[in-house]
Every structure is written in C-alpha cells, then in structure tokens.
Design goal:
The complex is a heterodimer of chains A (348) and B (138). By secondary structure, chain A is α/β, with parallel strands linked by helices. Chain A is 51% helix and 13% strand. A 7-stranded parallel beta sheet of chain A has the order 4-2-5-1-6-7-8, with helices on both faces. Chain B has a single domain, classed as 3-Layer(aba) Sandwich (Rossmann fold). At the A-B interface, helix 2, strand 3 and strand 4 of A face helix 1, strand 2 and helix 2 of B.
Chain lengths: 348, 138
C-alpha cells in the first residue's frame, strides 16, 4: 500500500497512525514529495509544547522520557517522541535501542514513539528532526519530546528544535563538567540530576547550581544600551518593556526508574513554557528557529545545485586531477564553476 | 530495490513475543542486520503481539522479524498479522519468523502471510540476502 503525498497529508491531519509513520519515513529519507508533505503540514503546527531531552549515554534519558510520557498520559495529554540514536559511519547500520525503555507506554497508540538514526546526511539530521517534530505537532500531539545523546554540535542543533531543553546529568564523575563546558550549559533551560538516589548526587547538584550562578552574571546582561554617552532623556527602546524576571536554570533531581521527582520536573517544564510565553521569548525563539530553518534549507538546496554542476563538469575527482597535474588551482576552479550561477543571479 | 546508503536503509523490527526468554538468537540477528547496513529496532523480551504491532506501525519498518522459540508461533504470529492488517501495515511489511517451527506449521504460517521461516542453523548471509531481495518496494 503506497500512500500518495495527498493521502499522507490527509491521513496525518485525520489522525491515521500509518500515515504519520509514513510521513516521518518520507521526511527521514528525503523521498520525493517530502517537501510537499512538510509544506502542507506547516499551517497546522505550533500548538504542541516541544521538549528536548539530552545528556550523556547512560544518563537515563529514555527511562525518564518513558515516565514523562506516562505522566502526561495520566493527565489526558497525547505524546509524540522522536529518539535519535547513532549509526555506524561505515555501514550506515544502527541498532535503535531507546524503544526498549518505553515500558510504561506499550500498547498505548496515543504515545507515538519513533526512533531515528543519525545517518550520514551532513547537517540534515537537525532539519529532519525538526520536520518530524512538525509532523507530530500537526498530527495533534499535545507534547512532543526529542531525545538525543548530547555529544556534539550536531546534537545541540537537534535540540534547538525544542522550546524547552532539559539536560540530564548523571551523578559523580568530573566528566559532567567537561560535557557542560562543550556548550551544553548554554542550551539547558533545566538541569536534571537523574539517578539522584546514587551516592554523589548531592555533590553534582551542588556543582551544577554553582555553575548556573556563575553563568548567570554574564548572561543576564542583555541590554547593553547603557553608558553609550546618549542624553539622559532619550527614550531607550528597551526600557518601556515590562520588567521580566530572567529565567534561572533550575537544578532538579529525579530517579527515573521509580518516577521520583518526575512530577516536579514536569511542572518546571510547564513553568518554563509559561515564562517563554509571558516574556515573548517563545515568539522570538520561534522566529529565530524559522530563520535558521530557512537558511539551512537554502544552503542545502544551493549545495545540491553546486553538486549537480560539479557532476556536469566531470566530477570533483577530475578537477582534483587537473590541480595535481599543475594545470590549475582550486580557487580558479571554484570561480569557474560558480561564475555562470553568479551571472544568472545578477541578471534577475 | 537497492539499499542506497544515501537515501534509505532497510528498517527492521526484531521482535520477541510471548513467554520466551531466549534472546541470544535475536541479538545475533540484530547485530548482523546492523552490520549489513540495516536500521534495527529491537523490541526487548516478553512482548505482547499488540506491542509488536505498535512498534512496527510507529517505526514504519520494512521488515518484522519475529523470533519464537517457545512453540507458541501458531497463537502469536496470527495476532501480530491481524494487528498489522488493522493499521493497514500488513501488505507492505515483510514478515519473517525465526525459531524452531515444525514443517507443517511452516506451511500454515506462510499461508497466513509470513514470507519465510528460518530454522536453526540458517546461515546469516542467507537471511540478510533474503531481506535485501524481498524488502517491500514503497
């Protein structure tokens, strides 16, 4: 049963699970028609709360996500989950193991769990994830959770698709601090020390709290329009806006295996969502995200035009041969390939 | 179809159904499939047919491989197949069974819609090749 693009669109908006699953497959594989699917779904998005969960392997992300989903279900909310696992760079194969932890929600179709592999396509994964989230949003899920290992830039880009990002930190080991240094600190809206019943959890909580406080001094200097030598009675654009409390990243404790602390965690997520809405941050965030999406899309599209042009001219290896033979250099080749395109742009 | 690494890779659900705690075989298959370039979702032990159906539909897998060593295949496999039909996922999903299945039962399972039954001692390459050749065109 091959579904057409229209059938998929109709099905997703109609609440058909098979259509939703197929839509995400299309998005993931960049199959023909995936653009039409995403474009068609776009106007139906924006109602779901999107939550990102990241943290080092073994931090307990999947187990926590499972408990989150079942708590949301108890509240009568529907949940969509996208879980991203690494794939082998050599074979492209992968074992996607997050599903195995979803023990509390088996057989419940209102929890839509989808595993995705971080396969090859450079920079494409964050776009694919964001598009998959849109499909779940358009389907009508109240909460959409993105789960990914926080290891590098790629993963950080992925959780950017979320409105609220929780970073899970397992207790003990100085490695956490190392991980946090790598830019994860900036993306966290909430820190969760999972496995809080393990020795050393208190210390990790303490360390994180200190780090948050230290970071706070730098981050909250948002205006920067003072001391520029302007007259005192000049209207400062920012000064008329109502004062808002800045969001101080809370540090919470959970034991995902027993569900301890999960309620508090979810209320904190809700508080953050309210804060985003009240301060206008949500609109700003979504504007930035959409801008970034457009930019990425254009960049990828432009790259594929260039790829086609390279192939047209005999492939990049042939060009390399010419450079190595001393006939030309990479810059001349680049100018050469791009010249007709630049001309075409100038003319229009 | 050709499993183009750039475009799509074959997605497989390796499933253990019912009261059967022997998953060494399922693990070996999962790893072999991974190394063959497939994306493998492993269900975990002791799953009910409903759970397998849920996973197969949501993950939109091309292949469902059911591992049964308990002898309950005649009860459990039809339930999985019915569930897949209910969600319109039966026609374009390749259903395989692995385990100890008597010849008479094999025939019955195949009539029901199981593409192939792999018994003990089946070379890994044979299973992988079968999946490559028979993964549904979509």
């Amino acid at each position: 049963m091959t579904l057409s693009t229209d059938e998929i669109l109709e099905g997703v908006l109609d609440g058909d699970h098979r259509a939703l699953a197929r839509a995400i497959t299309k998005i993931e594989n960049r199959e023909d028609g995936y653009r039409d699917v995403v474009a068609g779904l776009y106007e139906h998005t924006g109602s779901a709360d999107v939550i990102g969960i990241t943290g080092s392997p073994g931090a307990g992300k999947s187990t926590l996500v499972d408990k989150m989903a079942s708590t949301y279900r108890d509240q009568g909310l529907t949940v969509g989950i996208v879980a991203i696992d690494p794939s082998s760079p050599y074979t492209g194969g992968a074992v996607l193991g997050d599903r195995i932890r979803m023990a509390s929600n088996v057989g419940d179709m209102d929890v839509f769990f989808r595993s995705m592999s971080a396969r090859g396509s450079l920079g494409g994964l964050s776009t694919a994830t964001a598009d998959a989230v849109k499909a779940l949003d358009a389907f009508g899920k109240d909460k959409v959770i993105i789960e990914t290992v926080g290891a590098g830039q790629n993963e950080i880009d992925i959780v950017r698709a979320a409105d609220t990002v929780a970073v899970l930190v397992p207790p003990g080991s100085g490695d956490n601090v190392q991980m946090l240094k790598a830019g994860i600190l900036e993306i966290a809206d909430v820190f969760v020390v999972n496995k809080a019943d393990v020795d050393g959890a208190d210390r990790t909580v303490q360390e994180l709290k200190e780090m948050v406080h230290m970071g706070d001094g730098h981050v909250s200097v948002s205006g920067g329009h003072h001391g520029m030598g302007v007259e005192a009675d000049v209207d400062m654009p920012g000064d008329d806006e109502p004062e808002h409390e800045p969001w101080e990243t809370p540090v919470l404790e959970t034991v995902a295996t027993t569900g301890e602390g999960v309620d508090a965690f979810l209320s904190t997520l809700a508080e953050h969502a309210d804060w985003l809405a009240d301060t206008g941050q949500l609109a700003a965030k979504r504007r930035m995200r959409t801008a970034e999406e457009i930019r990425t899309l254009l960049r990828n599209d432009a790259a594929s035009i260039v790829e086609a042009e390279i192939a047209e001219r005999g492939g990049v290896e042939e060009m390399a041969e010419r450079v190595l033979a001393g006939d030309t250099d990479p810059y001349t080749i680049a100018d050469d390939v791009l010249a007709p395109m630049q001309d075409a742009i100038r003319e229009t | 179809m050709s499993a183009n690494q750039e475009g799509r890779s074959i997605r497989c659900l390796v499933a253990k159904v019912g009261l059967d705690g022997h998953d060494r075989g399922a693990h070996v298959i999962a790893r072999a499939f991974r190394d063959a370039g497939f994306e493998v979702i492993y269900s975990g032990l002791h799953k009910a047919p409903d759970e397998i159906v849920q996973a197969a539909v949501q993950e939109d897998v091309d292949v469902v491989g059911i591992s049964i060593l308990s002898g309950a295949h005649n009860t459990l496999v039809p339930k999985v197949i019915e569930g897949l039909k209910e969600y319109g996922a039966f026609e374009d999903t390749l259903i395989l069974v692995g385990g100890v299945v008597p010849d008479d039962d094999k025939r019955e399972l195949k009539e029901m819609g199981v593409a192939e039954v792999f018994g003990p001692g089946t070379p890994m390459e044979e299973t992988i090749e079968f999946v490559r050749e028979n993964a549904p065109e979509r």
